[in-house]
Amino acid sequence: MLRTTFGEIKTAYILNWTPEQSEDIFTILIELDKIAKVEISRFTHLETPIIETFKLRDFQKGLSKVFQIKLVVAIDMAQKDHYKG
Fold this sequence. Notes:
The chain is of the alpha+beta class and 85 residues long. The protein starts with a helix and ends with a helix. The protein has one domain. The protein is globular and about 40 Å long. A 4-stranded antiparallel sheet has the order 1-2-3-4. A hairpin with an 8-residue loop joins strand 3 and strand 4. The protein has 3 helices and 4 strands.
């Protein structure tokens, strides 16, 4: 599903998961510069997930301190993945 939207992906880190009544919402760091908010229905696997994308710099504005820390850790791990071998 993410590859369909973003093409070849080397790294993707889940930053947050929000279970709702009828769907699950995931916030995912894609590569080093994109954020995807993915909404997946709990009731039917036939529905296409809803994907919203954000540039990292736009997404960072107004985040809580806890979420900022999660994001920094995920970016650090993604950078290490990108610069391996």
